[in-house]
Amino acid sequence: MDEFDLNPELLQELIFKLRAVMAREGLVSPDSGSNPTDDEGPATLQEDDDDLTRAELEALIDDLEPDQQAQLVALMWLGRGDVEPEEFSEALTLAAERHEGATAAYLLAHPHVADYLEEGVDRLMDGTDLMESGEY
User: Fold this and answer.
1) Within a domain: residue 62?
2) How many CA atoms within 13 Å lie on the side-chain side of 110?
3) Which residue from 16, 2, 4, 3 is spatially nearest to 118, judged by alpha carbons?
4) What is the rounded CA–CA span in Å between residue 38 and residue 35?
5) Where is there biased composition of kind Acidic residues (predicted)?
6) Containing domain of residue 105, as a range?
7) How far is 121 from 100, CA to CA, in rounded Å?
């Protein structure tokens, strides 16, 4: 597909990093109704000085070219089920037209963005396993 030219290694790395950051901060367990004094600890992993930070991830995404950022957004929409693979070209156009503010902030507002990107690649490339092979 000519419109989709993101480097597979870059996308694979981005998905790994998104999963690492989102595991630490985005998926907080809802109030379980338990007694907080009896709970063992926080429901999410804690950030360490040596960890990839959200700011580094935002910089990585926002440093991409505008067309690459649009590809990420359209890919997320595809993985989320908002569009079908045959509508990817239209999704790219729409992502570029709707671009306001930081793409990273938009993507990171979706707690399952890494899963959506992986599913989007799978649907767009008809069953590729990017995360295993690093290739489309």
Assistant:
1) yes
2) 16
3) 16
4) 6
5) 37-50
6) 8-25+52-128
7) 24
| Exposure class string for 98-126: b at 16+ Cβ within 10 A, else e | eeeeebbebbbebebbbbbbbbbbbbbbe
Rounded to whole angstroms, the Cα distance separating 21 from 57 reads 8
87-108 pLDDT, tens digit each: 999 999 999 999 888 999 999 9
| pTM for this model (two decimals) | 0.78
Size of the chain, expressed as the number of residues it contains:
136
CA distance 9 to 37: 45
Residue 96 lies in a domain: yes
136 in a structural domain: no
In a domain, 73, yes or no: yes
Closest CA to 87 of 114, 39, 95, 99: 95
